[in-house]
Amino acid sequence: MRILIVGAGIGGMTLAALLKQRGYHPTLIERAANFDHAGYMLGLWPLGYRVLHGLGLYEQFAAETLECKHYEVRDNHGELVKHWSMAPISDRFGPNLSCTRPQLVKLLHSAIDDLDLRFNTTLETLEDNGETVTASFNDGSTETFDLVVGADGIHSKVRQMIFGEQPYYHTNWGGWVWWVDLDQVPPGNLRRTLGCRPLLWHLSHD
Model pTM? Predict the structure, then answer.
């Protein structure tokens, strides 16, 4: 089966790795030139990272990530509003693990390094042939696939091609995420700051 995955982000590469595990060799296209600007921090709960167990990547992921052991909310003056221990969740289901997005991208990339991954490539058109789909790319080439998967994010070009323009809903929420020095937040502590200012997240490690 000829499979095209549009978007080599976390979703696209995870799907590619799972397909490879089952004997398929999909083609991935990615509009970026590389993974140098792959985003910031993210956290994975046990339900989210269970797919890494299936890919045989969990042990490496766990060794390179930070466990969130405490979660606290503070107001815009820095005063503590609420504190939770993550132990009841982690003891029963597993730890909440956090990392930078580039770390997870690098890990997933290692699982598909022999697949056809094309950077600087965008999808221009899709033509439904009934049993197959013909895709054209920004370099002028065309190829035919049995399945095309849109994994190209919130502003998906694949979705737009299939369903047309869709209304965009803006929540008017905003925030910053950053890493701080070890002495600024207790080890394993995730701090959320709320108030009249934008949302702030802090995560420190041991």
Answer: 0.84
> Is residue 65 a contact partner of residue 46, using CB atoms and an 8 Å limit?
no
64 CB-contact burial (10 Å; exposed 0-12 / middle 13-18 / buried 19+): middle
Q: What is the distance between the alpha carbons of residues 115 and 112, in angstroms, rounded to a whole number?
A: 5
Closest CA to 176 of 189, 152, 153, 194: 194
Q: Are 95 and 66 in contact (CB under 8 A)?
A: no
Q: Which DSSP string do the residues of the chain spell out, in sequence order?
A: --EEEE--SHHHHHHHHHHHHTT---EEE-SSSSSTT---EEEE-HHHHHHHHHTT-HHHHHHTSEEE-EEEEE-TTS-EEEEEESHHHHHHH--EEEEEHHHHHHHHHHTSTTSEEESS--EEEEEE-SS-EEEEETTS-EEEESEEEE---TT-HHHHHHH-----------EEEEE--TTTS-TTEEEEE-SSSPEEEEE---
- Closest by Cα among 21, 24, 36, 23 to 149: 24
Give Cα 173 distance to the centre of its chain: 20
pLDDT digits (tens, 9 = 90+) for 160-196: 999 998 887 888 877 666 666 666 666 677 777 776 5
Give the Cα separation of 9 and 153 in Å (integer): 8
Task: For residue 101, give both structure tokens.
Answer: 């997005």
Q: Assign 206 a pLDDT band (cuts: 50, 70, 90).
A: very low
